[in-house]
Amino acid sequence: MVHVPKLTRADVVAALRNPLAFIAARWTPDPRTVRRAALSALVMSVVIVVTGGAVRLTGSGLGCPTWPTCTEDSLTTTSAMGFHGAIEFGNRMLTYVLCAAIGWAIIAARSEKPYRRSLTRLGWTQFWVVMGNAVLGGIVVLVGLNPYTVAAHFLLSTALITVATVMWQRTREGDAAPRPLVGKAVQQLVWFLVVASVLLVAVGTVVTGAGPHAGDSSEINRIPIDWETVSKLHAVLAWIVVTLTFALWFVLKAVDAPEGPLDRTRELFLILLAQGVIGYVQYFTHLPEVLVALHMFGSCLVWIGVLRVLLSLRERPDATAGLPAQAYDSVNASIAGPR
User: How far is 307 from 190, CA to CA, in rounded Å?
Assistant: First the structure.
């Protein structure tokens, strides 16, 4: 039977003053646990985007007509709100699951030895992005699903996915200065790919704001442009991203690049092909809800794929890799603090 030490009054005071430091002094997760915690935050950041899309596609955007409560008289949904109220309130509750996943990532990163401040900062950045997006989501409801605020809501969710992806990647790296694995020309090509992908995502939000899925069964203002014209611009940008990805793969093969960038580029290319098929099918079948939801999920995967290509262009070894064993133990002990 494992002996559990009794908590003293000093322990309780320390836990209340700085709970993260208290946990870190008594628990050291293995690197795999930290990676899984960061991955769980990334997965939930994608889930919250997809479920937010489900709210819009089912016309449940105003299922809870006010914020932060669901109705003027109730914090939660009521039977009178019906199906739409349950969908909208359920999506709001998933925000707490997302916060729990991010909290787990923060605790795991803070408890890792040696302590890596960069990981903890990335975790806290996710938390504050979620808080900001929760407030923006409330504004979206209060202004009656104004399409510009809806677009901003999605873009801030994309920012959350960006930070979560970076944190997940950083859990598999060290803290030494990054060393490039490819030349300047390849790096510039990848940055062109990143910029084109940003434009692709941004124009996609305009398509959504002008398209037929307004987010609620009532009359909702739309962006006053022809959504089919914007969809064609969106398709052109998609082809540009596909072309840049194929060109990047060809260049990486030509310069005999490491397997990491090649593998990530190949994965992105396959994701783009699948996303393109879904995009064209949904366009010619007049935007069925299921395909639109799949396309939203695919947009998250595309952006994650682009980020992984960008992050694969360099390596960051362990900052303590070159230290003698005694020096490493000294650094580890000084950072970890008392147990």
Answer: 10
